[in-house]
């Protein structure tokens, strides 16, 4: 298993940061080479199903997930249920007045060769997310 916890400051209040994080179809605007779609539910609660394709063109993999905790505007947890990525993930939004901190954690099984690229990709994506959330509008 690969355990990961990354933090990024966000120059936006918790409510806006939460809205930006849970705008599943727009995650591709900040998540490296990834498109996300809701596969079951309305995208706003426990039991929601998600599918995230990561790759370029037809080459890549789909990470299927089910939301296991939904506590707006501070916490969302998922169970990764796919063939390539299995385990748990969570994001927490820590309110700090007009700003906040995003804490992204994963405890997942990954092929050993994929771990360094995964870590770099998540770090890059979280930096891009901080800028996305600052300007986010539905």
From TrEMBL:
Q: Which InterPro entries match?
A: Polyketide_cyclase/dehydratase (IPR019587), START-like_dom_sf (IPR023393)
Return the protein name. Answer: Polyketide cyclase
